[in-house]
Here is the input.
Amino acid sequence: MAIECKNMVKIYPNGYQAIEGFNLHIDDGDFCVLVGPSGCGKSTTLRMIAGLEDITHGTLEIDGKVVNKLPPKARGIAMVFQSYALYPTLTVYENMAFALDLAGFDEDIIDKRVRQTAEVLGLSDYLERLPRNLSGGQRQRVALGRAIIRRAKIFLMDEPLSNLDAKQRVSMRSELVRIHRNVGATTIYVTHDQIEAMTMATKIVCMDVGVIKQVGTPEELYSHPANLFVAGFIGDPPMNFVNGHVEKGVFYSTLDDMKLDGLSPELLEKLEGKKLVLGYRPEHSFVEKPEEDCVTVHSKVEVYEMLGDVQNVYCNRDGLTSIIKAAPELNVEIGQDITYYVKKADLHFFDAETEDVIE
Here is the structure.
């Protein structure tokens, strides 16, 4: 089912405005991820869509019908919570069958659906176990099973992987994508983890302080961030930023001797007279000069992290901090001078006052 949020606003009785002018279209079958820092309004938005929070202003449409006044059970939605919310004294089978039993389904239908759903989730061998005898990942799959078994057209998931360890989270990310592909239900997923958003979403909604900062595919938000917030939030490690200005066709950084010429006349016309922020990603930094036209950066190694297949090198010179994502073979020492290069094609310019991208 398609979902349409039109100018949705949430103001609490104490006057705090959690959501401001939220406009979003979610296509039928989308895996839409709401991502942003803690307190940005992701869960509040999800709860408004679920009917657990009233919408102060604006409208919510599901399948073309306004549902602002409909109770949660009438919206055709299944919700998966961070805490699993399993009944500890019921087996996996009984937990998954509970909603259907409550709805008065025949035992044969319940049994068929439970076993079909357990097969999809890889839980067939665990149906007689209690939740306490399952791993965190298995319990999360049971929670998903309770949602799937209802044959809901929309799934809402509120940070469902946050209680899992790092290895389980990686495994469950691919599980969720596989389940979504098989079930085909429209899914709205809340997380503060931008890696989860990038690896799972067909559409990302990046939020901050109750406002949508950008909507797009993972590739669009990574390669074409609309503003400084998205540029700094999406990507791991985050984008490097350099304050500066353009003078006589040359970009000069504020804190060191970094400069950049050869910019196109069309771009220079947009940059002239503005306080600027130049951005580039750590993975777009090269210690060997590439053949393409590039900018040179001189810095000093502060810290380095060896991650196995890659190492992050943290640099600082004259107060200008930056991160390089380098090959593990690169030998570096703390305090060492380092020179690296960034292709001009990989640079992003932002207006320092509006924080919007300049293209």
